Amino acid sequence: MTKSLSNPLLSPNLWIDRYADYLYNYAITRVNNSDLAKDLVQETFFAGLKSAKNFEGKSTERTWLIAILKRKIIDHYRKINSNKGKAEVRMSFYEEGEKEGSWIEERAPQTWDNEADKLIESEELKSTIDSCIDNLPEKYAMVFRMKTIQGFETEDICKELDISASNLWVIIHRARTQLRKCMEENWFNN
After folding, report:
1. CA–CA gap between residue 180 and residue 172 (Å, rounded)
2. Are 69 and 23 in contact (CB under 8 A)?
3. Domains in the chain, please, with CATH?
4. Which residue spans adopt a coiled-coil conformation according to this UniProt entry (predicted)?
5. DSSP line for the chain
């Protein structure tokens, strides 16, 4: 047994049986991606093993593991929202059919050359986006505008709306999912 596993307050050999399903269900509701949720749970178990010597027993094992998982989820969203992370994020506009596919964001097709067409297209696009944002649930629209359009810091939004950072990122994810659906119906399919 390694030193990091010698904490008598923990039973890492039972974590998978006791907590894997719970942690997975927790993660999947926050990242909406099965493979990513599994990876985050695995990373949580590894981080738990590495920091087992720091566990003081002030909470249950499950609560402690959830706290680790929350940090892993926040780190994931921070990464994909950083400039480097954004370049690695794949943009999927169509999930099925003959248009199925995705692009790495930095290699997405560029706009047209004609300036007049660009201006008209830009105004129509802005109008469609605004309409789609207006159709979001009120809290989603507020959080999305504050974070994405107005550029507020996560901490400021959380304080203003009395929500946690993980809740903020769940709201942002859900807002983006609904916006994508709205844009597909009102912009890409026209």
Report:
1. 12
2. yes
3. 3-83 (1.10.1740.10), 111-188 (1.10.10.10)
4. none
5. --GGG--TT--GGGHHHHHHHHHHHHHHHHH--HHHHHHHHHHHHHHHHHTGGG--SSS-HHHHHHHHHHHHHHHHHHHHHSHHHHHHPEEEEESSSTT-EEEEGGGSPPPPS-HHHHHHHHHHHHHHHHHHHHTS-HHHHHHHIIIIIS---HHHHHHHHT--HHHHHHHHHHHHHHHHHHHIIIIIT-
Q: What is the CA radius of gyration of the chain?
A: 21
Q: Name the β-bridge partners of 90.
A: 104
- pTM comes to 0.44
Q: Tens digits of per-residue pLDDT, 56-106?
A: 888 888 888 998 998 898 888 887 776 554 444 444 444 444 544 444 444
For residue 95, give the amino acid letter.
E
